[in-house]
Amino acid sequence: MSRLKRLIQEIHRRSLWQVLGIYLVGAWVAFQGIEALVSGLGLPEWVPGFALVVLILGLPIVLATAFVQEGVGEKETPAEAPAPPEAEGAATPADAGGLHLVLTWRNVILGGVAVLAVAGIAAAGWVLLGGEIARSPETIRSIAVLPLENLTGDPGQEYFADGMTEAVISEFARLGSLRVISRTSVMQYKGAHKPLPDIARELDVQGVVEGSVFRAGDRVRITLQLIDARDDSHVWAQSYERDLSDVLALQGEIARAVAEQIRLKLTPEEQALLTAPRPVDPQALDIYLSGMQHLNRVTLPDARRAVQLFEASIAADPSFAWAHEGLARSYWYLLGRLWTISPEEALPKVREAASRAIELDGTLAQAHALLARARWSLKFDWVEAESSLSRALALEPMNVHVIESFSWFLQSSDRIEEGLELRKRAVAADPLNPETRTGFGWALFYARRFRLALEEANRILERDPGFARAHDLLGNVYWSLGDLDAAHNAWRKSYELWGRPAWFLEAVDRGYEQGGTRGGQRELLAAIRERDDGSISHVARAVIACLAEEPEKAIVELNHALRRRDPIMLQIGKWPTLDCVRSDPRYQEVLRKINWPGLEK
């Protein structure tokens, strides 16, 4: 008998085929379990491959063990001993014993030991290489990017570090399944030395990205790390070095790297947005970042300086879309937030700059939102405005400016609940910004939920007692609740904080002494008509006229606002402090001229 034939007989006799079958089935089950653990517990991507190698290496060991163990303790049966006769109809081993030959204790134990050994080796290998089974980074679905530290040693480069922080945040804002905290809230931690878990708790996030920026000439090095704030554990770290001309594309690379670490599934559009090349002229970028530093201060001198810097950035690189978007934002701030430029001057400039930005880069969400607001104000085209705002929100679902723009559109369209839900998203993305929280308070006021608006205004002022818009909101709420003296006091405080000129405050005080809160508003309206240069919104004047119980003047001011394309005009459909003209046919005619969707209901 040949050796090969004898080996095959021994394999049959020692049931190694059954051992092999059990091992393969057990190994398959173990491998499926390990893949499930990778998905469920956030194990590293290399774990399944490591386990597969161990399983393959374990096969010859298990077979050799089974081969040896089968012969231990066995008694040799003499060859000449005749086999006992089998009774007719009795079950033969082939008939009745086939199953028990496979499911013997030996085979079951061998299979179980093999599976457990593989699982144990895989887990041990992962732990030895630094893993922690308890950590589940894929469950991180909210992140704060803390202000990047400026390592240049030059305080004059702070604007660059802040600009890089904002650029990283903007890329994360493109990811719809990740809640990222806005720049305004995280910048409050610049220079702070709080423990990361405390910061994460205040911002209500699970993960924190922190790092530094070092710039030398036209070379930039950005070093980042991701911390799971729930257990203060390190998840990921990376250092990047690029030419300044490639630094914008780098932000998308960073966002992709973090998304991969937390196992965030990106949509094809998100993948495309994060991989788009964005070369930029270094000089144009440098000027742009300086412009953003000024614009974010939201003061009149800084906004005007931002206009100059964005125009200089465009001159350095006319194809730099971000600078065109920044210019559009500056003009909108001067019009809608600072009241220092007329709609006739500002709106065409916003439209032109935003349109050019979109021509150069159609992925800029704020450019779409600004273009929507400019066209909405100039053409009263609600359908086109909603389309542009929807596109902006799809591009950056967590961009607070986009969310707020769309929220105001929805509420102005008499879709109150939809607008409120978006406002809640804005607050979740920007929890420490009094501007965003006050916007939510104004949304509650617009929805006539005055008690809730009062609570929100008081919460804001507890944290930031010098915030003018919150005092203005408080005055409107008190007025609507019938507490006129409290309304006067709140408005008077907001005027001081806004830095209104002396004649403005004198008129309010003089009128209040003569005729209470309504008298103060009456004198204020007369003074504005006499002294203002046209920068104060005519819708605001109409509101003041209603507060002074002068509905005829309110109608006149609303028609002025219509003629001048005052952007606040689009919000008058349900504004509570315009109730004095709500039933006037002339007011209804104004609503028809702006194509207000609420008239169709």
Task: Note down, in words, how this protein is organized.
- This protein is an alpha/beta fold and 601 residues long.
- Among the domains are: 1-67 and 106-134, no CATH class; 137-278, Rossmann fold (3-Layer(aba) Sandwich), CATH 3.40.50.10610; 280-397, Alpha Horseshoe (Serine Threonine Protein Phosphatase 5, Tetratricopeptide repeat).
- The protein is built from 27 helices and six strands.
- It has helices at residues 3-13, 16-41, 47-71, 93-96, 98-102, 105-128, 158-172, 183-186, 196-203, 247-261, 268-275, 282-295, 300-316, 321-337, 343-360, 365-379, 382-395, 400-412, 416-429, 434-446, 450-463, 468-481, 484-498, 502-531, 538-547, 551-564, 585-593; strands spanning 142-145, 149-150, 179-180, 207-216, 219-228, 233-243.
- Strands 1, 2, 3, 4, 5 and 6 form a six-stranded mixed sheet that branches.
- α12 (282-295) runs parallel beside α14 (321-337).
- The chain starts with a helix and ends in an 8-residue tail after the last helix.
